[in-house]
Write a structure and sequence with these properties.
Elements: H1 3-25, H2 47-56, E1 62-65, H3 69-75, E2 84-89, H4 97-108, E3 112-116, H5 122-128, E4 131-135, E5 154-159, E6 170-175, E7 177-182, E8 188-194, E9 199-206, E10 209-214, H6 222-225, H7 228-238, E11 245-249, H8 262-268, H9 270-289, H10 308-322, H11 325-344, H12 355-363, H13 367-382, H14 388-404
Parallel strand pairs: 1-11, 2-3, 2-11, 3-10
Antiparallel strand pairs: 4-7, 5-6, 5-8, 8-9, 9-10
Helix pairs in contact: 1-9, 11-14, 12-13, 13-14
Amino acid sequence: MAKRDKLYMIIFGVIAVLYLTFEIAGPEPTDWSESYSRSDKIPYGAYILGEELTHIFPDQNIHEITISPFEYLRNSRFDTTKSRNWIFINNAVSPDKNELQLLMDAVSGGDNLFISTSNPGDALSDTLGFSVGFWSGFGSEVSSLGVPDSLRQATTLSFENPALQQSGGWTFDETGSMYFTSVDSANTVILGHTGDDRQNFIRMSHGEGQIFMHLFPKAFTNYYLRDVSHATYAFKALSYLPVQDVVWDEYYKAGRSGYSTPMGFLLSQPSLRYAWYLTLAGIFLFMIFKGRRVQRAIPERKPPVNSTLEFARTIGSLYLEKGTHKEIALKKITFFTDYCRRNLGISIADPAHDLIKEVAERSGVPGSDVSGLMETIRRVQNKPDISTEELKDVTSKIDQFYKNSQR
């Protein structure tokens, strides 16, 4: 490798190492995705709430479920005499009819169901008899796309209960929110509303238990719970639940833990991700500096050439140059007699006329051809010398015999 090429490679390697060092030592970019997961410390995760559950529900068991409610209720063994609080917080909670029926049965038996979501599924809204709409946040229910920030309005939430309410409510830095456009008024109690009196928090009785529907799940995320004032709103909303065991959902999370591939888990962990990047960089540098050969190139060795044909041509040329046509013819005749002995089992060292029929029968060559060949052989053997044309004639007839012979 030339000195200039080595210099370029060294410069590239230094730049790569500096870049990786900066990536590792630099600040981690903020992840603004909405996960609502109890294990996530990102702004829209629910780590703070997960830690505070033991204070909100003191001396109670916190069960975290990562499987569907259907599987959990079917397969889990727990004390059926004790009531539980089921808490679902996510941007979308859409249980199917079978799961919802099992949850409703649990509520009917005395459990309480708390759901905070901005996107309840059809099965949920149809079963509980409510419908929802979206308020854009700037005085109209049309889309806020393209509206200047100066015209946008933050979301303000309040409680109906004066004992829980604070002056002016709680303002969240979010434009637009979901609200209930209709509810089952005979079975529903309004617990909270937005700043323009749109209902966003309700309670419904079902059997011996209760169902709480809340439409602003971001109020329970780390971004707002880090602030004492906003945390007060979330804790007051959860205060409607009695102090008893809690079943916390991790199945319906937008950022559900668990990865479909090992690589997905590896890249999700900062330390493993940087180790993977360093490994790739090391392999790349190894390929550049050590991937080339470190020994002399092995010369190509051509396979030996079959010189038999060239040898035969050389010998033939020598005979032709000396003009010994009869010697060449006699050698061909000798090869022919040897062929008949080995393949036909007939000795024709002294070709006789009575052998023609036997040779023809054993070789499958027509008798007239065999007769002509024998006659030519006798003529060549009896002459002291032969011409080029006679040599070609006997050679042609012998070669034709070989071609037509079936032995």
